[in-house]
Sequence to fold (182 residues):
Amino acid sequence: MIRTPIEANYETYDVIHLNHYSTIWGGNTYNKILVTEMPSEDLISTSSTESTNVTFLYPRLISNKVYLDGVAEGHITIYNDTGSSSDVTTLNISLKKTEDVPSNEETLGSYTATLSADNTITDDNYLVLPFYITISEQTLEANEKLLFNIQFTSSTSGLKISHALDSSLIDIKIKIPYAANM
Fold:
């Protein structure tokens, strides 16, 4: 059977960490969130997180069942203020969904890369890495929310995932393909 390609509509999300906002979902508390429009830069936020594993939540429930199919793409930014150079050696980006139930995450798609060139971050500098996640005919139900997870390994500890609230310089962006039907 020949499958007719689905024309996807893309929604673009940026990420932020708001200090005066949090939401609980699936047993976890999130103040790292996905937004469709960058809010006021005057909000109190945290510009980076010193961790090699960070998850962002899209805090809004999708109103109806939707389908994801195509390639989600974007970039992440890692910041080095450790005092020495560091190499980012692996990158794993995943898009997940979850109901409001602890430990009930399901991966919609993921991207994994081993980096061996152009992967060094000198002190007080940034490394921007692209990603491409193939999503094949996945469903997002009306009672589920999206999770966007970033994991990496590096040659030294102390690197940070950058997510500054700056609309002129977006640190992390993901464009997700939504299909009308499947």
Observations:
- The chain has a mean pLDDT of 92.
- Residues 9-179 form a domain with the Jelly Rolls fold (CATH 2.60.120.260).
- The chain has no helices and 14 strands.
- The chain has one domain: 9-179.
